[in-house]
Design goal:
Elements (H helix, E strand, L loop, with lengths): L1 H8 L10 E2 L5 E2 L3 H11 L14 E2 L8 E4 L5 H12 L7 H9 L3 E7 L2 E11 L5 E9 L8 H15 L4 E6 L4 H10 L3 E6 L17 E7 L7 E8 L5 H6 L2 H19 L3 E6 L4 E7 L8
Parallel strand pairs: 7-8
Antiparallel strand pairs: 1-2, 3-4, 4-5, 5-6, 6-7, 8-10, 9-10, 11-13, 12-13
Amino acid sequence: PSILTALLDDGFVPVVATIGVDDKGQAYNINADTVAGAIAEALHAEKLVYLTDIEGLRRVVDDPASLIRRTTPDELDVLRATMESVWGPEIVPPRNLLRGLAIGGACLLVAFVDDRPVGFALGWMGWHGGVHFHSHQVGVVADVRGGGVGLALKLAQRNLCLSEGVTEMRWTFDPLQLTNAHLNLNKLGALGVTYHVNHYGALGGINGSLPSDRLTVYWDLVGRRPDVDETVRVEVPMVAPEQISSGAPEAVSARLALRDAMVPLLAGGWIVTGVSRHDRAYLLGRPVEWKTRQP
């Protein structure tokens, strides 16, 4: 085909992924972007280019109404309204700040379902501890949570990073929120590397009056993970989102108990590799000859 010939003539290495089939005949998707990213890094490529026939990442491949696209400087009202619908007006940044981020090339995304904005993502480049993408906020409106919008937003951020040659993403989440932990650790394959005590100070809203402890996760966008030679489980006390938002004594106790268990382990070089929502427990491992740049 002419397009492959043109790419080869320009010095590119085309990577095309087909549908895979397991030993039971079940078809499954193979992520060409993951393969291309790994090849590009191994070859020390100067550029990674994606070719697609759609205008952005879709939560549902065959559904154009499930589009996730970048927000332009002239579309910030939609982004701000979506942010307010997710978490309320107190978390919405000033319009001029968002405009500056958009003009500067930051990643401002809005997810749509049937032309209705239902989620957003906000992030930018960072360099503390090494060049990486900092995914600051990802939020989804309540009535579509659990439908894959949050996952699609993270994957859209990943696609943007890989297209610019960035292979590391970081963000924080509340370790008491096991639904978020499942997405971050189990579905995406990120690793918990640092525990922060009261990271953002008093936040209010869905965070209530609890100290804003957070776990920083590190996501290698080309799929590298360290080997571990020891594992340990850390139990998470039972606590409901309503107890967190109300600052109930049970939530405070849960926060302090998890903090006391996690802090010494992560400070001692352990990393969080997964979570069991059913058992309410984190799985930690001690890496073998692996060092991450501490955020």
